[in-house]
């Protein structure tokens, strides 16, 4: 297994742009942004303005900033907030990746590190997101069942809730 890479928002933007025309071919302009403090909650006012939220779990690799230890997790929680403003023909996606703490360096200070992802994993995750957007923003019927939060089962060590930022906030994708 290769060494994990660091968090790379430009990889997510590049993959988003690359998949956009084939996956959301409705003539609307979509953008991807990042908010590292957003939660999975949407207020009534935000719902009235068309915001929707979804979360997924993805396979990513971490590197501790203190001891440089690396590890992989199939349980990296990602939250996507999105909406389509039909009058403006613009769609917005805001993403938040949740981190994990290092098992070796973990202490009471809750230092969470961001995962790095392979391009294939980013593409798979965005394809699941685009399927949700087509259903929720364009009313497209889904082929088969609902979009799974995780579509590939990978064997990794047991999930340690005390090291998971999403578990600390009560929104880990394993809760589903």
Descriptive overview:
With 176 residues, the protein is an alpha+beta fold. It has four helices and four strands. It has helices at residues 9-23, 44-48, 119-138, 165-168; strands at 29-34, 52-63, 70-85, 90-97. Strand 2 (52-63) and strand 3 form a beta hairpin. Helix 1 (9-23) packs across helix 3 (119-138). It is globular.
Q: What's the alpha carbon Rg, rounded to whole Å?
A: 17 Å
End-to-end Cα distance, whole Å, is: 28 Å
The order of strands across the largest sheet is 1-4-3-2
Order of helices and strands: HEHEEEHH
The dominant shape is: globular
User: Largest beta sheet, briefly?
Assistant: 4 strands, mixed
Q: TL;DR of this structure?
A:
This protein is of the alpha+beta class and 176 residues long. Helix content is 25%, strand content 24%. Strands 1-4-3-2 form a four-stranded mixed beta sheet, with helices on one face.
Characteristics of this structure?
176 residues; alpha+beta; four-stranded mixed sheet; 4 helices; globular
Question: What order do the helices and strands come in, and which of them pair?
Answer:
Elements: H1 9-23, E1 29-34, H2 44-48, E2 52-63, E3 70-85, E4 90-97, H3 119-138, H4 165-168
Parallel strand pairs: 1-4
Antiparallel strand pairs: 2-3, 3-4
Helix pairs in contact: 1-3
């Amino acid at each position: 297994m290769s060494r994990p890479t660091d968090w790379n928002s430009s990889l997510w933007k590049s993959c988003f742009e690359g998949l956009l025309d084939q996956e959301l071919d409705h003539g609307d302009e979509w953008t991807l942004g990042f908010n590292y403090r957003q939660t999975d909650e949407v207020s009534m006012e935000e719902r009235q303005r068309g915001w929707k939220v979804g979360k997924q779990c993805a396979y990513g690799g971490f590197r501790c900033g203190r001891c440089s230890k690396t590890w992989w997790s199939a349980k990296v929680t990602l939250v996507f907030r999105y909406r389509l403003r039909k009058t403006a023909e613009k769609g917005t996606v805001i993403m938040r990746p949740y981190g994990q703490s290092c098992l070796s360096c973990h202490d009471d200070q809750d230092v969470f590190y961001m995962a790095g992802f392979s391009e294939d994993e980013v593409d798979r995750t965005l394809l699941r997101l685009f399927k949700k957007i087509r259903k929720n923003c364009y009313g497209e019927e889904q082929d088969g069942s609902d979009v799974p939060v995780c579509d590939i089962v990978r064997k990794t060590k047991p999930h340690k809730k005390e090291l998971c930022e999403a578990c600390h906030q009560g929104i880990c994708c394993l809760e589903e």
